[in-house]
Amino acid sequence: xxxxxxxxxxxxxxxxxxxxxxxxxxxxxxxxxxxxxxxxxxxxxxxxxxxxxxxxxxxxxxxxxxxxxxxxxxxxxxxxxxxxxxxxxxxxxxxxxxxxxxxxxxxxxxxxxxxxxxxxxxxxxxxxxxxxxxxxxxxxxxxxxxxxxxxxxxxxxxxxxxxxxxxxxxxxxxxxxxxxxxxxxxxxxxxxxxxxxxxxxxxxxxxxxxxxxxxxxxxxxxxxxxxxxxxxxxxxxxxxxxxxxxxxxxxxxxxxxxxxxxxxxxxxxxxxxxxxxxxxxxxxxxxxxxxxxxxxxxxxxxxxxxxxxxxxxx
Length: 314
Prior knowledge:
Blueprint: H1 3-15, E1 21-25, E2 37-44, H2 47-59, E3 64-67, E4 73-75, E5 80-87, E6 92-94, E7 99-103, H3 108-118, E8 120-121, H4 133-139, E9 142-145, E10 152-155, E11 160-166, E12 172-175, H5 177-180, E13 195-202, E14 204-205, H6 208-223, E15 234-237, H7 247-253, E16 260-261, E17 264-266, E18 273-276, H8 282-300, E19 309-311
Parallel strand pairs: 2-5, 3-5, 4-19
Antiparallel strand pairs: 1-2, 6-7, 7-13, 8-14, 9-10, 11-12, 11-13, 15-18, 16-17, 17-18
């Protein structure tokens, strides 16, 4: 038995033989719909299962990563060598005082719908952004709102109260905003191997009619600026924000909207978004990213830094 076989066997003993799948295509679990197979695949259905899977993988020194909605990543065509932990832990509860306690795998869209129905305000501003709770905290989810004025960027940190994490050191603990260090597209989780297991948000009583108006206006506004994922899968913004300029604006000024390599294309709607026209490969996207970076650097002497994560083997 090889070392990898023994690790797989130990993983099955710890998490259940029927729960460990092999050679699962990962593309369908991402918003880009791109990516090869993961050697080992486990769906964590609760915060406890997520923590256990992480601890076992760390103990076995097995390469692993946690997959939520896969909204800001590009997975390589050759897939991932190791364990993919898909976080589908979605248990949650709204308390009478406006606290929302939720597992990190819950989908923000689902929580928004329930919150609005119950009359709790605070999450409706982030409608239309594909994310789990864990991803929302990791990236400090944000949107230009409220409608219709759109005078400022609103961040998920504004309703965040605390989160339970499994730390890099293997400790389960509850932490607040001072630990998370929310920034623009940044938190402590970009810099440490901590994983969010669950979170608590503090919501306020709101006017349901006003919340529905915000939902509708935000969806309409976003739909005019972002390609619809159902038709043109993407990973959201490809390049990080450049203060005072805008990465997409530079790409647009070079006339690169519509530029295509294979089935990967720079969107006609937003020059900082690349879309999958049907059967794009990760290598097509990587080539298109390099093309845009070189063109912008040659013309404007500015380096575009990717915002998305690159996972697996390309």
